[in-house]
Amino acid sequence: MTSLKLTHKLALLALLPLLGLFLFAFLYAAQSYRTMVNTADMLPLTRLAGQAGQLAHQLQAERGLSASSINDQKGEFRSRLAEQRARTEQALRQFEQGGRLGGLEGEAATRLGQLQQALGRLSGLRQQVDARQLTVPQVVDQYSQVIATLLAVIDGAVPLAADAPQAAALSAYSAFLQAKDRLGLLRASLSSARVAGQFSPELYRRFAALEAQLASYMERFSVLAPPAWQEQYARLQSAPVAGEVAQAIALAHREHGNRALSGEAPAWFTLASRYIDELKGLEDGFADSLSGLAAAGHNDARNRFILALGMTLVVTLLTLAVCGIILRDLRRGFEALKQGIMRIASQQDFSQPVRVASRDELGELAGAINSMQRQLSALLGQMRDTCEHLMAHSGHTRSTLQVIQQDLDKGLGQVDLVVSAATEMSATVAEIARHASETFSAANHTIARASAGDRKVDQTISAIEQVAASLEHGEARVVEVAGYSRDVSNFLAVIKQISDRTNLLALNAAIEAARAGESGRGFAVVAEEVRSLALQTQGTADQIEEMLNRLRQGSEQAVDAMTRGRGRSLECVDEAKEAGAQLSAIVQEITQVNAMTEQVATATEEQRTVTDDIQHNIVVMKQGYDNTQSCAGELVRGSEMMEQMVVDLDRRLKAFTLGNDTREARG
């Protein structure tokens, strides 16, 4: 089932109720056809029932005349019996012609076979009657058996009726025939009693039983017969002949204990026969009505079958047409959806909408897909614009980082010069300290050798002049170091500006990456790393600036000390020159020089310590420059990586074909 197309699945889904509809329609049509066939079979059965009624009527008349002729000594019933037998034979031939039925099954076929056997024994029964070999009860019983077998054929046709009204009418007709048969038996019994002059006990019991059976069958007829039949029978019951028959039967009940019955047998037989003939008229009408009812039932069943067959064909064709139209529309809708989605998935084309003309769920789904397609197209257009802006910004950032790296390279070269100057200044200060020690030793020798003052004064003047020159040189070096520290401060300001700009660029890049969503996550990581490096550079620059401030303060103190030392040296030179004129004050002046020299030595030692600090700080600053240069290199590589990612993203976005509305919105 998973490999079937959706239209085939829908066709299978529609096929199941359609098959159910076909099955129901087929069953209904088959039932209508069976009803039509049954009603068609009932047509000859109803005609056979009418012919059976005719034959039963003639047999009943023959039975009465045969029973009366047994005790007829005068021969009054002989001629009438012969005429009745002729009428019976004619009715029998008609019944046999109508009784050639095929296709009967079950109880109806069995009863029809029994009837044919009973009718075959009729000729032998007549011979026995003519020979008076039978008694009246025997004659009545044997004729009654033939008639009962004949009427049983009608009862056997009741289950074959097509519907309940037809079955009720056929059952009522059978009850009416049974009642008429019982009336014929009453006619024969009372005729025999009047011929004999009285009722025998057995004959009277039979007479009373027949009357009860007559009432029972008429009650059954009243329950099952159609209203028209009941109305016709009610009119007959109100006729004088019915009243006379009822009076004769009531009189027979009253006189059954008498030795002689009043009335003549022929008169009673004629009266009863006239009433039976009236009933026969009703019977013929009932038979015609039954045939008409069967014909109407057959026509109705045939019409129902034709209607069922026609409705089945119409509903089938209509259902197939509706299913075909629905499946066609569904196939077209799903095909349009499939083509639209495949175009988006395989060709990455967002320029054409999915076209589904229906207003059902497929149309709503197509509208939702088109809305999503427009939103995705707008989003891709915005991402493409963002990539273009990022490409421009990344190029500018890369250029800026290259400038920063060049500035750092220059600053690193200047720092190397500062380190060399600081080293040289440290050596100079050490030299000054050494000279101060020598001056101190010389002063001690001068004190010890006061007698050699003239000769040593020149040496002292020369030494002091050298000290002054060294101090002047050290002062110049310290001033130069201070100038270098100011240059480094300027470079640090540039580095801090670059760091601030890098931090701002990284922040903008992070904002653009956040706008890009999932596709800008890698760019956001790079932007965060650039921002972190910028913050580290700014922190290192702050530390270097603090060290330079301390170096500047130390340099200013050293310059001040050297200035004072140089001034002192000049004073020593003047005093040494005056010593030549004032030898008397040599010892005192040399003592002062000794004290000054000691101060110079102390100051020089302090200057050497400060110079060492300056040298150490400059080395730290150089390390900071090295770190900044490394960070700048990482920033350049990160910028190049970010630019490559943006170019790749832009290439991927250009693979999508966007609609005109998206390009107009971007424009």
* Structural domain tally: 2
Query: How does the major sheet shape up?
Result: none
Beta-strand content = under 5%
* Percent of residues in helices: over 70%
Rg calculated over all Cα atoms = 73 Å
Compute the separation of the termini in Å.
Answer: 50 Å
Please identify, by name, the CATH architecture of the largest domain: Orthogonal Bundle
Q: Which parts are unreliable, with pLDDT below 50 for 5 consecutive residues or more?
A: none
CATH topology term of the largest domain: Helix Hairpins
CATH class of the largest domain: Mainly Alpha
Average pLDDT: 77
According to DSSP, the number of beta strands is 0
Class derived from helix and strand content: mainly alpha
DSSP summary: helix tally:
15
Which shape, going by the Cα principal axes? Answer: rod-shaped
Compressed to H and E, one letter per element, the order equals HHHHHHHHHHHHHHH
GO biological process, one term: chemotaxis
InterPro entries: HAMP_dom, MCPsignal_dom, Nitrate/nitrite_sensing, Nitrate/nitrite_sensing_bac
Subcellular location: Membrane
Domain HAMP: 328-381
Can you offer a commentary on this structure?
This protein has 15 helices and no strands. The protein has 667 residues and is mostly helical. It has two domains: 50-301, no CATH class; 369-655, Helix Hairpins, CATH 1.10.287. Helix 5 (136-157) packs antiparallel against helix 6. The longest helix has 88 residues, at 361-448. The protein starts with 5 loop residues before the first helix and ends with a helix. The relative contact order is 0.07.
